[in-house]
Amino acid sequence: MQDDLPPSSRQTDVLDPARATALQATLGDSVSFSTGETLPPFFHQLYFWNALPFDQLGRDGHPQVGGLIPDMGLPRRMWAGGRLDFHRELVAGHAATKSTSRQRAECKDGRTGPLGFVTLRHDIYQSDQLCVSEWQDLVYRRDAGPDDPKPVPPIAALNETDRREVGFSSTLLFRYSALTFNGHRIHYDLEYARDVEGYSGLVVHAPLLAQLLVLFAQECIGPLRNFTFRATAPLMHTEKAILCRKNRDFWVRAPDGRQCMAATASAA
After folding, report:
1. Distance (Å, rounded) from C-alpha 43 to C-alpha 40?
2. Do residues 48 and 13 lie in contact, with contact meaning Cβ atoms separated by under 8 Å?
3. Cα gap 17→169, rounded to integer Å
4. Which run of H or of E encompasses 76?
5. What per-residue confidence (pLDDT) applies to 1?
6. What is the pLDDT of residues 23-68, one digit of tens each?
7. CB 113 within 8 A of CB 139
8. Are strands 224-231 and 259-267 parallel, antiparallel or unpaired?
Protein backbone atom coordinates (compact mmCIF):
# COMPACT_ATOMS: atom_id res chain seq x y z
CA MET A 1 0.00 0.00 0.00
CA GLN A 2 1.37 3.41 -0.98
CA ASP A 3 -0.13 6.88 -1.38
CA ASP A 4 -0.59 8.79 -4.60
CA LEU A 5 -2.63 11.73 -3.29
CA PRO A 6 -1.75 12.43 0.37
CA PRO A 7 -4.13 14.74 2.27
CA SER A 8 -3.20 17.77 4.32
CA SER A 9 -4.48 19.81 7.25
CA ARG A 10 -4.05 23.31 8.66
CA GLN A 11 -4.31 24.59 12.25
CA THR A 12 -3.88 27.96 13.95
CA ASP A 13 -3.03 28.36 17.63
CA VAL A 14 -1.87 31.09 19.99
CA LEU A 15 1.45 30.06 21.54
CA ASP A 16 0.44 30.47 25.18
CA PRO A 17 3.53 31.43 27.25
CA ALA A 18 2.05 29.70 30.31
CA ARG A 19 2.25 26.36 28.54
CA ALA A 20 5.93 26.89 27.74
CA THR A 21 6.57 27.87 31.36
CA ALA A 22 4.83 24.67 32.48
CA LEU A 23 7.11 22.58 30.25
CA GLN A 24 10.18 24.29 31.69
CA ALA A 25 8.93 23.43 35.19
CA THR A 26 8.30 19.84 34.10
CA LEU A 27 11.89 19.64 32.87
CA GLY A 28 13.12 21.00 36.22
CA ASP A 29 13.77 24.62 35.20
CA SER A 30 12.17 27.69 36.82
CA VAL A 31 12.40 29.87 33.68
CA SER A 32 9.11 31.59 32.84
CA PHE A 33 7.95 33.08 29.54
CA SER A 34 6.02 36.23 28.71
CA THR A 35 4.31 37.40 25.55
CA GLY A 36 6.88 38.50 22.97
CA GLU A 37 9.71 36.29 24.23
CA THR A 38 11.24 33.67 21.97
CA LEU A 39 10.53 30.00 22.63
CA PRO A 40 13.20 27.28 22.81
CA PRO A 41 13.50 24.99 19.78
CA PHE A 42 10.99 22.12 19.51
CA PHE A 43 8.57 23.77 21.96
CA HIS A 44 6.01 23.89 19.15
CA GLN A 45 5.13 20.34 20.31
CA LEU A 46 3.10 22.04 23.06
CA TYR A 47 0.64 23.56 20.62
CA PHE A 48 -1.76 22.67 17.78
CA TRP A 49 -3.65 20.06 19.81
CA ASN A 50 -5.94 17.61 18.00
CA ALA A 51 -8.64 17.33 20.68
CA LEU A 52 -11.22 14.72 19.72
CA PRO A 53 -14.06 13.10 21.71
CA PHE A 54 -13.47 9.63 23.10
CA ASP A 55 -15.51 7.87 20.41
CA GLN A 56 -12.96 9.08 17.84
CA LEU A 57 -9.96 7.61 19.65
CA GLY A 58 -8.30 4.25 19.05
CA ARG A 59 -7.57 1.67 21.75
CA ASP A 60 -4.15 3.28 22.39
CA GLY A 61 -5.57 6.74 23.14
CA HIS A 62 -4.44 8.30 19.84
CA PRO A 63 -6.99 9.62 17.32
CA GLN A 64 -8.33 6.82 15.16
CA VAL A 65 -6.38 6.31 11.96
CA GLY A 66 -7.95 7.16 8.64
CA GLY A 67 -7.53 10.33 6.60
CA LEU A 68 -4.22 12.04 7.27
CA ILE A 69 -2.84 8.78 8.69
CA PRO A 70 -4.36 5.88 6.74
CA ASP A 71 -5.56 2.67 8.37
CA MET A 72 -3.03 -0.04 7.50
CA GLY A 73 -4.44 -2.58 9.95
CA LEU A 74 -1.46 -2.23 12.29
CA PRO A 75 -2.43 -1.17 15.85
CA ARG A 76 0.90 -0.35 17.53
CA ARG A 77 2.28 3.14 16.87
CA MET A 78 5.78 4.49 17.52
CA TRP A 79 7.32 7.89 16.83
CA ALA A 80 10.43 6.61 15.08
CA GLY A 81 12.27 9.88 14.47
CA GLY A 82 12.27 13.05 12.51
CA ARG A 83 14.07 16.06 11.14
CA LEU A 84 13.77 19.71 12.15
CA ASP A 85 14.86 22.77 10.20
CA PHE A 86 14.80 25.97 12.25
CA HIS A 87 14.34 29.04 10.05
CA ARG A 88 13.21 31.67 12.58
CA GLU A 89 12.45 31.66 16.30
CA LEU A 90 8.83 31.29 17.40
CA VAL A 91 7.49 33.99 19.72
CA ALA A 92 5.29 33.30 22.74
CA GLY A 93 1.85 34.85 22.99
CA HIS A 94 1.27 35.30 19.26
CA ALA A 95 -0.72 33.21 16.79
CA ALA A 96 1.01 30.66 14.59
CA THR A 97 -0.22 28.36 11.85
CA LYS A 98 0.81 24.76 11.24
CA SER A 99 0.36 23.23 7.80
CA THR A 100 0.64 19.42 7.74
CA SER A 101 0.91 17.17 4.71
CA ARG A 102 1.47 13.45 4.40
CA GLN A 103 4.70 12.73 2.57
CA ARG A 104 4.41 8.93 2.47
CA ALA A 105 2.43 5.98 3.78
CA GLU A 106 3.56 2.50 2.85
CA CYS A 107 3.75 -1.05 4.17
CA LYS A 108 6.84 -3.23 4.10
CA ASP A 109 7.69 -6.68 5.43
CA GLY A 110 9.92 -6.63 8.51
CA ARG A 111 11.68 -9.35 10.46
CA THR A 112 8.66 -9.80 12.75
CA GLY A 113 5.91 -9.08 10.22
CA PRO A 114 4.43 -6.14 8.30
CA LEU A 115 5.42 -2.59 9.17
CA GLY A 116 3.66 0.61 8.20
CA PHE A 117 5.70 3.76 7.61
CA VAL A 118 4.15 7.22 7.65
CA THR A 119 6.01 10.52 7.22
CA LEU A 120 4.25 13.80 7.97
CA ARG A 121 5.63 17.21 7.12
CA HIS A 122 4.72 20.14 9.38
CA ASP A 123 5.50 23.74 8.39
CA ILE A 124 4.92 26.33 11.10
CA TYR A 125 4.42 30.00 10.23
CA GLN A 126 4.22 33.10 12.37
CA SER A 127 3.57 36.60 10.99
CA ASP A 128 3.53 35.02 7.50
CA GLN A 129 7.13 33.83 7.97
CA LEU A 130 8.19 30.19 7.86
CA CYS A 131 9.72 29.41 11.28
CA VAL A 132 10.03 25.62 11.53
CA SER A 133 9.88 22.73 9.07
CA GLU A 134 9.51 19.29 10.63
CA TRP A 135 9.42 15.81 9.12
CA GLN A 136 7.84 13.33 11.55
CA ASP A 137 8.42 9.61 10.99
CA LEU A 138 5.88 7.17 12.45
CA VAL A 139 6.01 3.37 12.40
CA TYR A 140 3.03 1.06 12.85
CA ARG A 141 3.29 -2.66 13.60
CA ARG A 142 1.07 -5.57 14.56
CA ASP A 143 0.68 -6.84 18.11
CA ALA A 144 3.59 -8.99 19.19
CA GLY A 145 3.04 -12.74 19.30
CA PRO A 146 4.37 -14.99 22.09
CA ASP A 147 6.92 -16.59 19.74
CA ASP A 148 8.13 -13.39 18.09
CA PRO A 149 11.85 -12.74 18.51
CA LYS A 150 12.71 -9.88 20.83
CA PRO A 151 14.25 -6.88 19.06
CA VAL A 152 17.97 -6.46 19.72
CA PRO A 153 18.75 -2.81 20.53
CA PRO A 154 22.00 -1.22 19.35
CA ILE A 155 24.79 -0.63 21.85
CA ALA A 156 25.55 3.03 22.50
CA ALA A 157 29.00 4.53 22.07
CA LEU A 158 31.07 5.33 25.16
CA ASN A 159 33.28 8.00 23.62
CA GLU A 160 31.25 11.11 24.47
CA THR A 161 33.00 14.36 25.35
CA ASP A 162 29.93 15.83 27.08
CA ARG A 163 27.23 14.03 29.03
CA ARG A 164 24.27 14.66 31.31
CA GLU A 165 22.15 12.26 33.34
CA VAL A 166 18.38 12.73 33.41
CA GLY A 167 15.84 10.88 35.53
CA PHE A 168 12.12 10.33 34.93
CA SER A 169 9.00 9.51 36.91
CA SER A 170 5.42 8.62 36.13
CA THR A 171 4.47 12.18 37.14
CA LEU A 172 6.91 13.70 34.66
CA LEU A 173 5.57 11.49 31.84
CA PHE A 174 1.99 12.35 32.77
CA ARG A 175 2.71 16.08 32.76
CA TYR A 176 4.47 15.89 29.39
CA SER A 177 1.56 13.89 27.95
CA ALA A 178 -0.87 16.52 29.24
CA LEU A 179 1.13 19.49 27.94
CA THR A 180 1.46 17.97 24.45
CA PHE A 181 -2.05 16.45 24.54
CA ASN A 182 -0.49 13.07 23.77
CA GLY A 183 -3.05 10.42 24.71
CA HIS A 184 -0.85 7.39 23.94
CA ARG A 185 -1.49 5.07 26.90
CA ILE A 186 2.01 3.54 26.92
CA HIS A 187 3.17 6.75 28.65
CA TYR A 188 0.76 6.78 31.62
CA ASP A 189 -1.24 3.51 31.75
CA LEU A 190 1.10 0.86 33.17
CA GLU A 191 -1.29 -2.07 32.73
CA TYR A 192 -1.88 -1.18 29.08
CA ALA A 193 1.82 -0.63 28.39
CA ARG A 194 2.73 -3.97 29.99
CA ASP A 195 -0.20 -6.24 29.13
CA VAL A 196 -1.22 -4.97 25.68
CA GLU A 197 1.95 -3.58 24.11
CA GLY A 198 4.46 -5.74 25.97
CA TYR A 199 6.68 -3.11 27.61
CA SER A 200 8.25 -3.64 31.03
CA GLY A 201 7.14 -0.21 32.25
CA LEU A 202 5.87 3.17 31.12
CA VAL A 203 7.64 4.31 27.96
CA VAL A 204 9.43 7.66 27.91
CA HIS A 205 8.11 9.68 24.96
CA ALA A 206 10.43 9.77 21.96
CA PRO A 207 9.74 13.51 21.47
CA LEU A 208 10.57 14.09 25.15
CA LEU A 209 13.97 12.46 24.65
CA ALA A 210 14.37 14.48 21.46
CA GLN A 211 13.44 17.68 23.33
CA LEU A 212 16.09 16.98 25.96
CA LEU A 213 18.69 16.34 23.25
CA VAL A 214 17.68 19.51 21.37
CA LEU A 215 18.16 21.64 24.49
CA PHE A 216 21.43 19.84 25.28
CA ALA A 217 22.64 20.43 21.72
CA GLN A 218 21.77 24.13 21.91
CA GLU A 219 23.80 24.43 25.13
CA CYS A 220 26.76 22.67 23.53
CA ILE A 221 26.93 24.24 20.06
CA GLY A 222 24.68 27.31 20.20
CA PRO A 223 21.50 28.15 18.24
CA LEU A 224 20.49 25.31 15.93
CA ARG A 225 19.93 25.29 12.18
CA ASN A 226 18.70 21.69 12.03
CA PHE A 227 18.34 18.59 14.15
CA THR A 228 17.73 15.01 13.03
CA PHE A 229 16.91 12.16 15.39
CA ARG A 230 16.04 8.47 15.30
CA ALA A 231 14.55 6.41 18.13
CA THR A 232 16.38 3.08 18.32
CA ALA A 233 15.08 1.46 21.55
CA PRO A 234 12.45 2.33 24.15
CA LEU A 235 13.46 3.78 27.52
CA MET A 236 11.34 2.98 30.60
CA HIS A 237 10.38 5.60 33.17
CA THR A 238 12.31 3.72 35.86
CA GLU A 239 15.58 4.14 33.94
CA LYS A 240 17.86 7.14 33.79
CA ALA A 241 18.91 8.55 30.44
CA ILE A 242 22.48 9.61 29.77
CA LEU A 243 22.52 12.40 27.19
CA CYS A 244 25.78 12.15 25.25
CA ARG A 245 27.57 14.36 22.75
CA LYS A 246 30.65 14.16 20.57
CA ASN A 247 31.08 16.92 17.98
CA ARG A 248 27.75 17.15 16.08
CA ASP A 249 26.56 13.70 17.18
CA PHE A 250 24.20 13.28 20.12
CA TRP A 251 22.66 10.14 21.60
CA VAL A 252 20.78 8.72 24.58
CA ARG A 253 22.32 5.81 26.45
CA ALA A 254 20.34 3.67 28.87
CA PRO A 255 21.88 2.35 32.12
CA ASP A 256 22.48 -1.07 30.53
CA GLY A 257 24.38 0.51 27.62
CA ARG A 258 21.74 0.26 24.91
CA GLN A 259 21.24 3.20 22.57
CA CYS A 260 17.74 4.66 22.82
CA MET A 261 18.12 7.59 20.43
CA ALA A 262 20.70 8.90 17.97
CA ALA A 263 20.78 12.45 16.62
CA THR A 264 22.85 14.97 14.71
CA ALA A 265 22.70 18.74 15.04
CA SER A 266 24.16 21.69 13.19
CA ALA A 267 24.54 25.24 14.41
CA ALA A 268 22.86 28.22 12.82
Report:
1. 6
2. yes
3. 25
4. strand 76-86
5. 45
6. 999 999 988 999 999 999 999 999 999 999 999 998 999 999 988 8
7. no
8. antiparallel
